[in-house]
TrEMBL record:
The lineage of its organism: Bacteria, Pseudomonadati, Pseudomonadota, Acidithiobacillia, Acidithiobacillales. Residues 1-30, 31-60 form the 4Fe-4S ferredoxin-type domain. Its cofactor is [3Fe-4S] cluster; [4Fe-4S] cluster. Signal peptide: none annotated. Ferredoxins are iron-sulfur proteins that transfer electrons in a wide variety of metabolic reactions. This is Ferredoxin. One of its GO terms (molecular function) is 3 iron, 4 sulfur cluster binding. PANTHER family: FERREDOXIN (PTHR42859:SF2), OXIDOREDUCTASE (PTHR42859). Keywords: 3Fe-4S, 4Fe-4S, Electron transport, Iron, Iron-sulfur, Metal-binding, Repeat, Transport.
Amino acid sequence: MTYVVTESCIKCKYTDCVDVCPVDCFREGPNFLVIDPDECIDCTLCEPECPAGAIFRDDDLPAGQEEFEEINARLAKIWPAIIHKKAAPEDADVWLEVKDKRGLLEE
């Protein structure tokens, strides 16, 4: 089992989750974070820290979010690690409630 960052993170990119990860398994892209499934130890610490509610166990992904398991695995191979919390984008709170953001993901 691993954890997966889903669509809600797109354009919000809060990094509270990064701060609590004991194995530095988060990777950072232009407007999204992913979890490296090869590094995640299933500790569960990141899930409750996400203000966007974007982190789920891979066996508990909401309907319509299944593709994010593959997206996390693929992008984790090419995006750099993020190991410290950063300020969220200035408009993160605006994007928090927006649905259907998949088309906005910058790979």
